Amino acid sequence: MKTMTTDELLNLLDANEDLNVIDVREDFEVEQGMIPGALHIPLGSIPEHTGELDASKPYILVCKGGVRSANACEYLASQGFDVTNLEGGMMAYDGELEFK
């Protein structure tokens, strides 16, 4: 499984790269802030939302600590998606937050 550090993600965000971030945390967790531009799909809902994702695009998955997003990465990779897990998740992320 491909992984990325939060520093690598912050560098990509600073460079205004076109990123596809999926936050797999629960609703109450994303209320505390999300990575700007991230799409919120709770882990348990991933299988029913795969039809909404574009298999030609790479995705970066994030959760609170990196375990749930790793599980989502394994599932999406088995479905043919190009996915990368954010190491340490939101606990390691100290960049800008977006509130929805």
List the helices and strands and how they pair.
Layout: E1 2-4, H1 6-14, E2 21-23, H2 27-30, E3 39-40, H3 46-49, E4 58-62, H4 67-78, E5 82-86, H5 89-92
Parallel strand pairs: 1-5, 2-3, 2-4, 4-5
Task: Write up what this structure looks like.
The chain is of the alpha/beta class and 100 residues long. It has a single domain, classed as Rhodanese-like domain (Oxidized Rhodanese, domain 1, 3-Layer(aba) Sandwich). It contains 5 helices and 5 strands. A 5-stranded parallel beta sheet has the order 1-5-4-2-3. The model has no long low-confidence stretch (mean pLDDT 97).
Keyword list:
100 residues; Oxidized Rhodanese, domain 1; 5 helices; five-stranded parallel sheet; alpha/beta; single chain; 33% helix; 5 strands; Rhodanese-like_dom
Short structural description:
The chain has 100 residues and is α/β, with parallel strands linked by helices. Helix content is 33%, strand content 18%. The mean pLDDT is 97.
